[in-house]
Predict the structure.
Amino acid sequence: MRRVIIGLFAVILLAGFVAACAPTPTAAPAPPTEKPAAAQPTVAPTKATDAISQIDPSGQTVLFWHVSTKIHEKTLKTLIDEFNKTNKWGITVQPEYGGYYPDIRKKILASIQAGSPPDLAVSYQNMVAEYAGAGAVVNLDPYLKSEKYGLSKDDLNDFFANFFAGDRYPEFNNAMYSFPPNRSMEVMYFNVSLLKELGFDKPPATWDEFYNICKAAKEQKDMPCYAISPSASTFAAWVWTRGGNIISKDGKKVTFNGKEGLAALEFLKKLVDEGLAYQISERYGDQTDFANQKVIFTFGSTAGLPYYAKAIKGDSDTFAFDWSIAPFPHSTPKPVVDVYGPSVTIFKSTPERQLAAWLFVKWFTEKKQTATWAMDSNYFPVRRSAAESPEMQAYFQKNPLYKKAFDFLPYGRTEPTIAGWQGVRDALGNAIVAVITGEKSPQEALDEAATTAQDALAGTGG
Amino acid sequence: MAAADEKNSSLMTSQPLWTGSRKRYWKRTALAYLYLLPAGIVLAVFHFLPVLYAFYISLHRWRIRNLGFRGVANYDQAIHDPRFWGSLKVTLFYVLGTVPFTLGISLLLAYLLFQKVRWLSFYRTSYFLPYITSTVAAAAVWLWIFNPRHGPLNQVLSLVGLSPQRWMNEPRGIVKMMAAGLGMHVPAWAAGPSLALVAVMVVTVWHFVGFDVVIFLAGLGNIPTELYEAARIDGAGQWQLFRYITLPLLSPTTFFLLIISTIGAFQSFNIIYVMTAGSGAQLGGPLHSTTTTTIYLFDQFYNRVNIGYASAIAFVLFAIILSLTVLQNKWIGERVHYV
């Protein structure tokens, strides 16, 4: 009996403890008041009237979680040091390595739950959409527009428009929840020497030409032409270059399961069935096979250019064969290229810190800094003026393929910036694998992917 | 133990609880609880509270933050989620494909090692080595062995004239593959575990055999030698000795290993994680054919941020493991012979 009483007592105590503890993390940090008290005397001598311009960011410290390692981290730190020394508000940016994308995402999710996110972090847009769903991210529109701290009309025109488009969020009234310092694109890598041997003097412009080249490679050299790395970005480009769409503009409805999506998967099946294409078996296996001339084509990011170059060179100083890049083959009148890349996003804190973080982002994407960062990271400069700068021009000359890719930018298109996108990506990747392995017919694979992707978009999960 | 009991009881008799004052009793009890307190606090804070908190989360729509009470909707969702059922099927394959094999192989090895073999400690160490190797490192090495193109396994297969396999990239069921080899077609439900899952099972068995062998060896050592001698005098052969003496008297050990291996297999995570997501491929892939319930739970929690739903899955899995253990206890526990 006594034991029961003591046990009961313990349970009650425990329950009380739980009740006291449990709800605390749910209490979201109060959203910072965007408008500082009107009583504050105007700091600015200008007649700026917008709320942001009234804030004084002096002396703030900004914690910045990034994903850069090795030489890139060094470049980033050098740039940050420069900002810390030269900015007139005495703002200090503290860089901290947050791990690679999946890790920095987990870290940020945990920090949002704990109510202490960093001030600034690097993330992909669908990740930002998740953070925004939890109300943790700052809308940058007022900052862009701020008379005192924002971007001028000339500045805005200087940024490449389709880079900006990739940072607007349809689920949140197209608000600008992130900013683009990093952009690359999905392209077709091809072996120029092998094409010549087969009697083709240029890369395939259409999917039919692509098939003909593969057929020729099989007949003349008994080799496959394409090493497939199943990727949603590749699938997206397959659909886009056939005139289709992945999801509707408002981000609510799956649209890739139309005739273009089916054509893409049927084409894939034909390539695999006829022994023209195969799935790689380890990460970057397509790069290795391309470098060893086992295939003619691969599809991948331009961020991979230095790695392809290294793999093809091997131990020697020169390339063993001629190679180049091109936009995906297409049946649309003009090529379509998938332009993507991580952005930076600012988390809610105090008005002063948010502004300080924005001022750093603004500085980082100015002409000189974006050029420095582009040359180091092999991402593209985000401003036209930076691309036209002498340093950048010299870099273009030294890296003709990078320049070639840069010239595809007018054909750029961005992936959807919605929280459910990761689920859609997985569904697309699985559709490719299901068709390659013959587990499903193209139609079955497409239908299943559409159902899964639609569920992901609905985001009904708990 | 017996000595302690004696001491205790003598303590009891010399100072019966109710002969002393009530105050004194409470003092002693309080002291005992005071001693228990440090461990109690650690258990409460790091075990029970998180469990209760997870249960609280499982009743809510929780995506990064608490978005409101949902009642049992998360549990309802699990019951109607085909991917959750799919993950249970994969888990079942995994448990059935690892536990009996691990137990069988390690019993055989332990029995052989228990005979007076030379280099006994060398063998014992060799079999134990996989168990003390980091699962992550070992799984990475196995990934290389299973690599379709440069892996030694496919090279061996080609040497003996068999066709190389895709291993970790193969989502097709092994029954289906074998049937296809014979020109037959099996329905989808009979396709069996994917070759990728079988590869993961092989690594799991390899890893846990060493542990089971050591436990079995201890169990074998506990069987009194007189029993063997008596049986021999009665004319029992080697097989009869094993069947009628070793096996029954080893049953407490076998039972213990069965329970912990089953629980372990249901909770298995590291090897599957490293062998799928670790190579840059899809977690639980290809085509979810290695997505056990723990992997699905992880995916829902970290990749989909359906934290409430993931917590609900954790409790469903807990309920399944608990009821299985109770059933095992009831059905098999009764047949265990204790020496």
Observations:
- Residues 1-14 of chain B have pLDDT under 50 and may be disordered.
- Strands of chain B lie at 60-63, 65-69.
- The radius of gyration of chain B is 26 Å.
